[in-house]
Structures are given as C-alpha cells and as structure tokens.
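User: Can you write out an input/output pair for a complex, sequences first and structure second?

Assistant: Here is one pair. Inputs:
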Amino acid sequence: MRLTFSNKDFFSEAKILLDEGREIIFSPKGYSMRPFIEDEKDSVVIKKKNSVKVGDIVLVHINDDVYILHRIIAKDGEKLTLMGDGNLEGTEKCLTNDVLGTVIEIRNEKGRKKLLTKGWFWRHTLFARKYLLKFYRKIILKYNLL
Amino acid sequence: MRTKTGFRLRQIGDDYILMPEGTEQINFNKMITFNATAAYIWEETKDKDFDKTTIKKLLTDKYEISDEQAEIDAVKTIEDWTKAGLIE
C-alpha cells in the first residue's frame, strides 16, 4: 500500500487538504534538509499558518511540478529566500503566496519527535557547514548517535 | 457485511486513495490505496450490505473474466479489506 504518486498529483492533493486547515504527514525524499530531516526515514507534519518567519521550514510550490521543503533564510516583505539545510550553496526565491504550509513537527522512523528549531546556529555557520555535515555523516549517522 | 463509513475515495493520478473524512491529520505514509478495480467495487458496495457473491457479480458485469477468476478476486478483496480494517 505504498504511495507512488508523481510529485504533482501528490502535492496538489496536499494543497487542498492544507487549505482546508488539515495537517498532513509524509516522508520527504532527498538529503537537502540534513541534518534535521533524514531521507524517507523521517516524516514531517505540515500545517498552513497565517504567516511565515525566517527559520521556518516550509513546503513551497516553486513552479509547475516543482515543490520543495526548505528553510526560509531571508524575508523581505512578501519575498522569501529559501535554502536547504543540507546544501552548501544554492537558494530558491518565492513569494509567501507560494507557501503551502509550515513544518510543525519532525518525527523519526519510530514516530518519536525530533528537534525542530528555527536553525539559528545552522543558518549562521554556513562557512563551516561542509565540515558539520561531514561530521554528521561520518560520526553521528554512522554510529547512530541521534 | 458492509464497508466502514468515514472515507472519501479520491483519485490522485492513476491511483485512488481512501481519504479519512473529518480527521484533522492526514498521514500519507499510512494511506490506503486502491487500483481502478478496487475503487469500482468500493463505490458500488458503499452503504450496502454485500458478500462474496455481490463482488463476484460486480466483477463479471464489468470485466470479461471467468467465474473462477472473479471468485478468486472477490475472496482476495474481502480478505484485504478485512485486514485493513475497512469492513464491519
């Protein structure tokens, strides 16, 4: 009973539910939100909020069938700049209107709540991110320290 | 037997999913998916009493399959739905 929708189908359905005020839970794919969200193992609870802030992890409709789950690193009025915590470079621009919802909880594969912060330290240590991510992969993940 | 109420069948792409109604949280990781045939049986048996014979008839009416195959599929459907807690 595994779901294998295309991104587009899945997220257009997700958008309807979020707009109805319901919360959705799913497991995001990819490594771009390391170390906070682990590919397919973790799941996120998403809810549509009235406003978004810098540091929020948001689900955004970028264009046609491109949806991303990244952190807001800058906000200028309605304009948002996003970046994946696990990325060393590259940002995405969008508007607050493109935000489908905000991550309100991260769960590990056992269903236990994981740390969810505004990522202040993480956002301000981009210069060292390469090494922090390497430490996370080689030590924390390898020895299962989380 | 009857199928449980409180679900809405929604089509997403080529799949059909059983969306729980009225719940605040929708967990896509635990969602029940149907193929087109199962979706057809679900819709046709909604709010009705049914058994193996009902499903068998639905299958042979719509698809060109043998009685034996329809019997196998009907039993399997009831088995799957019972396991998934969809039948009361």
